[in-house]
């Protein structure tokens, strides 16, 4: 009777460990998603700044002609 109880306890422990790891993966995936979204916003903002600078530079070039 000892070995079946040990097997059940180890099985439960294994499932509990997998549950904890799944929660950690989920939390890290959410954190990565937030970082990707933040980086995307920064890249879009930089692209808009670059576009405005290019327009201003083109306008300055037109005044030199």
Net shape: rod-shaped
Mean pLDDT: 93
Individual helix count: 1
Helix percentage range: over 70%
> How many strand units?
0
Identify the quaternary structure here. Answer: single chain
The residue ranges in which pLDDT falls below 50 over 5 or more consecutive positions are: none
Radius of gyration: 28 Å
Structural features, described:
With 65 residues, the chain is an all-alpha fold. Helix content is 97%, strand content 0%. It is built from one helix and no strands. The chain has one helix at residues 2-64. The longest helix has 63 residues, at 2-64. It is rod-shaped. The model has no long low-confidence stretch (mean pLDDT 93).
Task: Produce the secondary structure layout.
Layout: H1 2-64
Briefly, what is this?
The protein has 65 residues and is an all-alpha fold. It is 97% helix and 0% strand. The chain has 1 helix and no strands.
Give a quick set of tags describing it.
65 residues, mainly alpha, 1 helix, 0% strand, rod-shaped
């Amino acid at each position: 009777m000892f070995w079946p109880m040990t097997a059940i306890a180890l099985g439960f422990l294994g499932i509990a460990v997998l549950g904890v790891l799944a929660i950690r993966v989920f939390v890290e995936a959410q954190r990565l998603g937030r970082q990707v979204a933040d980086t995307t916003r920064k890249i879009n903002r930089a692209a808009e700044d670059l576009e405005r600078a290019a327009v201003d530079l083109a306008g300055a070039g037109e005044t030199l002609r």
